[in-house]
């Protein structure tokens, strides 16, 4: 069965109009992509001249940005079409080019200084992706999924899907599906190809993260794919009289404020940009408009796809309090925290108390089945205790198939692993 939320998403996006847009960004050759997952120690250098600082979820990635993960750090980057790049621990990359060709195709060039990265490139619309590693360069204009493990001396490229062309000082080589190429800088970049792909411990993380995006981004017809899977996992669309189809996160509640938690990050050429702390907090803060609906709370109206917003737009209201969206003094450079600030994705404990007003914060993506049913429980009682599975972990090899089943029956009363308790308290999600 198809996801009803995703289907509704398709219908409204076809009819969405460009509202509340920023023409300056639309007309430029600049591109901005999403830091879509942060686990453990991850640092970012936004090319501000201030060096590396702690990274957190939903920070924009611009040309010149560098990322590095620590011993226990992981990160994921989503590109506009939904393509993704995942960084294993002890990995350093630089986004040397995020631009557009004269014909309008997106051009992405990444330098892998060292470490291991997974790339699932969807190859849509003729967009180009290139990756420099060791003394080699691979280039894609079609779909491919691969793993690259590189240092300045040696590199190994394992291809899961598609085929990958690599060029270096020793010439060109094509690495086909289910084959691995090694490159040795000490041997004049000599390459060797094996007709197999050896399994690495983090392959399960990459596979399950890719499956999550594939499952929850089904039926998307918007011009953009980054963030769509999180919208369909963490919330749902409703037909609101006078407004049309609007999206709202689960566990929001009438008193929830969409702007109370996040951070302002400063970027050269852009100034301050707002980053939401919520795990789904990308598309609703970059496009469209927020409205407060009496009896329902804050809801997001998609649209404005022709430009990119440095801060979210909303219709002012006197019906409820809302945190003012006021950027810090331009040029200050340092990150400015709002409320609970920018957050990394949680490592899920054995049980979690999901409360009204948490809006999904504290729930790792894909860790719970059937959030729709859980949302009804929380709306009635104020909170529910659940027992999540680890996020994209090899310790739960059958979790993705279970997640897919729950996703296909969001209206079903069965809830899977979650157990519940009742109270009328409010606030965020508690971990134990």
Low-confidence stretches: 1-24, 394-427
Rounded to the nearest angstrom, the distance between the terminal CA atoms is 35 Å
- Continuous helix count: 7
Q: CATH top level of the largest domain?
A: Mainly Beta
Category from helices, strands and their pairing: alpha+beta
Strand content: 25-35%
CATH topology of the largest domain: Jelly Rolls
Gross morphology is globular
Radius of gyration: 21 Å
The percent of residues in helical segments reads 10-25%
How many domains, in number, for the residues?
3
Major sheet: 17 strands, mixed
Characterize this entry briefly.
The protein has 432 residues and is of the alpha+beta class. Helix content is 15%, strand content 34%. It has three domains: 29-203, Jelly Rolls (Sandwich), CATH 2.60.120.1440; 208-338, no CATH class; 352-431, no CATH class.
Plain-language structure description:
It is a single chain. Mean pLDDT is 84; it is low at 1-24 and 394-427. The longest helix has 14 residues, at 203-216. α3 packs across α4. With 432 residues, the protein is of the alpha+beta class. The protein has three domains: 29-203, Jelly Rolls; 208-338, no CATH class; 352-431, no CATH class. It starts with a helix and ends with a strand. It contains seven helices and 27 strands.
